[in-house]
Design brief:
The protein is mostly helical. It has helices spanning 17-46, 69-75, 88-123, 125-137, 143-156, 161-185, 190-198, 203-238, 247-256, 262-290.
Length: 305
Amino acid sequence: MVQPAADNAGRPFQLPRRYRTIVSFSLIVIALAVLWESYKWMGQTTGGVWPGTSLGLPVRTNNRAMPHLWDIVAALFRPARRGGDEILLVTLLEAAMFTFRSAFAGFLVGSTFGFGLAIWFIRSPLAERGLMPYVVASQTVPLIAIAPMVVIWGGQAGLPTWLAVAVISSYLCFFPVAINSLRGLRSPPATATELMRSYAATPHEVLTKLQIPAALPFLFPALKIAATASVIGAIIGELPAGLSVGLGRALLSFASSFSSAPEKLFGAVLLSSLLGVLFVGLVALAERRLIPENRRIAEIPEFAT
């Protein structure tokens, strides 16, 4: 029987965590690519129906509705506009940088507000009981409905358009950070709190020396969710803003020409996804720098108090 490779201590060999993450992400990307092309091949082979049945496939597999992946990649290196010189990839990267500015500003504001709200709730149970239902209810409002109002009000107040878009991103960011930070601030055992108080520690000292350090492992998983939410919020906020740049504008522009050049729209979607992945990667890098591996929380945070 073949034994797995082991290190000098006799333990089974494992790739470092960062490499395991890269390998896992790569395998998921490959699996999705194979699924895409397999579905397209099946649809073209069976005439657009499920094999052995007369039921039609939910998505047509012709090249106008579902282009090959290599056609999408090739479109990134062709001119973005007919008769233009700038390739699509450069156009989308410029748009992504503009969107990232709004998303990053919204991420900072929303995360700071959410963490501050959690500290207020932990210090004031009355404020938590009174405001928590409204914090939860705020997430039931359709973002696409309030985005135009926020952009218009921001313009009337003299704010730059990108800053008004950042407000929408912050709206999506504050909730997961607030809820999971509150959970983290409550995580220290009662014995640790009582020990601090027995040494005559002030409430401020208990917060800064016990509760906030204990909350950091709970905070970073929420920040990863907030990072992706900030990109989504920025793109949604750009749609009604009438901007000439940004990924939201690119998605609208290429959606209007989808029937003739679907590869451009799929390319814009690809760059939007990669922007979210990059943002989450930056948060994960900060987590590795600040939180020891044995204190990290790998699972998705439970948004419950």
